Amino acid sequence: MFDNMKIKNKLPFVIITFALISAIITGGISFKYSADQLTSSAEGKLTALLESRKESLTHYFEIISKDIVFQSRSPTVREAMASFGEGWKLIDSDPKRALQALYISDNPFDVGQKESLTHSDDGSIYSKYHSDFHGYFRNLAATHGYYDIFLVNQKGDIVYSVKKENDYATNLLRGEWKDSHIAEAFIQINKNPSVGSLYLTDYFNYGPSNNEPEAFLATPIHIKGEEYIGVLIFQMPIAALNSVMHVTAGMGETGETFLVGSDRLMRSDSRFLGSKSILKTRVDTDSVDKALKGISGIHTEMDYRDEEVLSAFAPFKYMSLNWAIIAEVERAEILLGLYELTAILLTAMLIGSVGILLVGYYIASDIATPISNMTTIMNRLADNDLDINISVSQRKDEVGCMAKALEVFKSNAIERDKLQKKLTHMAHHDMLTGLPTRKLIMDRLQDITAESGKESRTFAVMFADLDNFKTVNDTLGHHIGDEVIKTAARIFKESLKEEDFVARIGGDEFIILVTDVADADAALIVANKLVVAIKTGLSVVCATIPVTLSLGVAIYPEDAGDVTSLIRHADEAMYRAKEASKNRCSR
């Protein structure tokens, strides 16, 4: 039947027919193979992501556990436990009624801000101790991400808490919260108050904290060696778990990781349901059942949203916790790239067939060479080689347009690179002062600590806080307050050496790194210089209200050998400077 067909039609027709048949067979086999390979790749990636989240979660709980043991052994916490216990005993009337009246019902601060009250003016020894220690615990809770911190005596009385919610001053053995998880944590430690023992509760909706999901970690406090005097309890909100589980890198559009308790309720918020999931959404899947039985694996199933997903699962156990950790992604997304690629290939095959039929092999050869060259250029641009010269023959057809598009792509890539660098700078620098933020100063401190440890060098960390700054804001307005902050930042930079480092970490709080100081005396000379410079310089900006500087100094390695301890030491020294009439430095 091809006898009368012209060769210019016959040859393209035959080529296209056999090409299509070959393409269909090859495409079917390739589709099946590619689908299997994509699924296998997704399984490996999902399993790796699951293990990463599991390690991050374990690391989080280990950090909290080490921190509470460290705090329970610190002189400040031990002294606070003994002092509050003594102050509690000296309250003549009902301690619960008296303390809740002083620090909750008569507290001038709004609900949720009760911790802002440093002490009551009732003249009691308890309030004196509260004034001495409240700042330390409030700062500890804020900087370490704990919702609340409790001190409980051996009889179960909550003799101190930071937040001053309705559980404050109650008894965990007889009071209204005796059946709560915080009471469980206290009872378990009180039964066996050996040094370093820990007890972690599961998350549950805790009434005093607006019925929000909370967990409690408890450890005993000892003095004089082995003498047990009370229990230190950290209250941990769900936000920390969400921050670990909600990392979306590598999860695509439909992937997520989440936790499920032994009651089959979520212990972290769903990426898709938000805050409606924790302790509310039930997950009755085969993955959860197997993980809670201690089995790890990966398979395809219908998830809690009735979506077909590839689900990786594993048990997570830590102290009393028995959870299932799940990582899943919708199967449709795994194969989405394959479907899109198939559609593109089919379209390209049809267009190519028509092209062969119409213009023959000459056009194919004419297009192939420049496209090959531009593919090389695009691959180099994809590798961020922005210096490449785009040299394609000048022509006015589609190939020429592609070359011009490559020029635009290159220009956009250069602009994107500049923008990325600018955004990175903005993310790590304070918008008002241009100073580095906490992240940069912490990274710098980690680096210099490692370097100084190897080279036996000494440096100083200073924690700075402007005195009377709140009064400036409240009296003269925030625009004057902003000028005070900017002037202080400028004074710091002008007063320090180029290799020194200053960062703004809060409203009127700064951390200063002074490198290569000879000793503590040399560091104090620099600190006093800063105190004098701030007082002199800010008197011009704010003449009516004296704004001065309280500065705490910590020396490496004399005062501490790690970043966290150095900052804590400097922070405590700063508070001593404030308590000693401000406008000074302290060590």
Automatic annotation (TrEMBL):
All residue ranges annotated as the HAMP domain in the record: 365-418
Chain ranges passing through the membrane: 12-31, 341-364
Essential cofactor(s): Mg(2+)
UniProtKB keywords: Membrane, Transmembrane, Transmembrane helix
Superkingdom of this protein's organism: Bacteria
BP GO terms, sorted: signal transduction
Domain GGDEF: 457-587
Entry's Gene Ontology molecular function annotations: catalytic activity
Single GO cellular component term: membrane
Entry keyword annotation includes Oxidoreductase: no
Annotated InterPro entries: DGC-Regulatory_Protein (IPR052163), GGDEF_dom (IPR000160), HAMP_dom (IPR003660), Nucleotide_cyclase (IPR029787), Rev_trsase/Diguanyl_cyclase (IPR043128)
Protein's recorded name: GGDEF domain-containing protein
Organism: Veronia nyctiphanis
